[in-house]
């Protein structure tokens, strides 16, 4: 714990320095500088507050333990013993909280999310399952008060989803959804199956943090932009003007199409947002592979070929294979009530990282 306490001492000194700077009239005259100090002060205020509680509990515990060394009557000794136990528990809880607050933060956690869902093996049934997943995530976003917007979709005649790319806009969206990337498997009797046999099919989910323009440097000369007429399910023309846009990033080979809007300009804007997110994700995946030997978390490996979850309809069961979590309320989860799953994944990831701190 000593390296942690040393870091906390430094943070407390920095907090006190920032408090003085914020109150300095000369600094207040420079709005940009003052705002930067306010931001830094705010970022460390919670951890410093908890650290001060921790120091207070530690000092009180030391005092009580010192009392127990003295000659006390049995009643006073019993009371002091109870107080020592309470303070020891409080100190331990605050220590754990401090470790969590000091865990390196994912710089993407506060970002919006671009989610991509694609039907995998299983034909029409896989497309219908992909549609169920899309509905589940959009309802979860609605519960959280986030905004969703379809960037690109490719539907089947029966209402399934071959592929859908959509934006989820809301503070902390990525932190809540980043562990959803991977292969999702469903086991159920398809509505198209007359024999009543259980089929297994799958869909893949990718969760990308939305990239700001400044984070991804895209050379316009390395883009090929094609325009074409939009088409709907079955291939019939739904738009006789060339409003659909396909953008190809030549160095990486990444291709993004968008045709959901009637305006070519809006389709191009949406496609560029997806392109930036995919390029940022590609760069981060490469970086993670380089660092893989340092840490490979069972929760956050980011391997999208990994089967992460099974939705079993006959047993009303959802199982997350990475953490061994099984819940028997499948329909409730598909209605967007994902918070218990999200919280368990986050807690497991934090526990793994805390273990590496010790």
Question: Can you give a write-up of this model?
Answer:
- With 358 residues, the protein is of the alpha+beta class.
- The protein is 48% helix and 20% strand.
- It has nine helices and eleven strands.
- It has helices spanning 2-22, 25-28, 31-69, 74-102, 123-144, 173-177, 264-290, 330-334, 339-357, and strands at 113-119, 147-155, 161-169, 182-188, 199-209, 223-228, 244-249, 254-258, 307-312, 317-320, 325-327.
- Helix 3 (31-69) packs antiparallel against helix 4.
In short:
The chain is α+β, with helices and mostly antiparallel strands and 358 residues long. The chain has nine helices and eleven strands. The strands form two sheets. An eight-stranded mixed beta sheet has the order 2-3-1-5-4-9-10-11. It has a three-stranded antiparallel beta sheet with strand order 6-7-8, with helices on one face.
Keywords:
about 350 residues, flat
């Amino acid at each position: 714990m000593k390296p942690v306490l040393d870091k906390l001492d430094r943070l407390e000194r920095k907090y006190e320095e920032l408090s003085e700077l914020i109150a300095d009239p000369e600094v207040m005259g420079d709005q940009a500088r003052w705002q930067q100090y306010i931001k830094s002060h705010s970022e460390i205020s919670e951890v410093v507050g908890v650290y001060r509680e921790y120091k207070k509990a530690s000092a009180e515990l030391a005092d009580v333990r010192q009392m127990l060394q003295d000659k006390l009557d049995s009643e006073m000794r019993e009371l002091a013993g109870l107080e020592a136990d309470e303070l020891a528990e409080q100190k331990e809880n605050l220590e754990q909280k401090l470790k969590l607050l000091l865990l390196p933060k994912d710089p993407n956690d506060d970002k919006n999310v671009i989610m991509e869902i694609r039907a995998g093996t299983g034909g029409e049934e896989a497309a219908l399952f992909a549609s169920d997943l899309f509905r589940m995530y959009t309802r979860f976003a609605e519960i959280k008060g986030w905004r969703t917007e379809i960037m690109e979709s490719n539907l089947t005649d029966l209402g399934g989803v071959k592929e859908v790319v959509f934006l989820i806009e809301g503070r902390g969206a990525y932190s809540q959804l980043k562990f959803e990337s991977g292969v999702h498997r469903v086991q159920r009797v398809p509505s198209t199956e007359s024999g009543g046999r259980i089929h297994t099919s799958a869909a893949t989910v990718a969760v990308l943090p939305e990239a700001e323009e400044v984070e991804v440097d895209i050379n316009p000369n390395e883009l090929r932009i094609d325009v074409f007429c939009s088409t709907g399910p079955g291939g019939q023309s739904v738009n006789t003007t060339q409003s659909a846009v396909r953008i190809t990033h030549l160095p990486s080979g990444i291709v993004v199409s968008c045709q959901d809007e009637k305006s070519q300009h809006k389709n191009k804007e949406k496609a560029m947002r997806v392109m930036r997110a995919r390029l940022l994700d590609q760069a981060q995946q490469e970086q993670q592979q380089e660092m893989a030997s340092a840490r490979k978390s069972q929760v956050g490996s980011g391997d999208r070929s990994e089967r992460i979850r099974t939705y079993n309809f006959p047993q009303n069961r959802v199982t997350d294979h990475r953490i061994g979590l099984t819940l028997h309320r499948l329909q409730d989860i598909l209605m967007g009530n994902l918070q218990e799953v999200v919280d368990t994944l986050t807690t497991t990831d934090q526990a793994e990282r805390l273990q590496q701190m010790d």
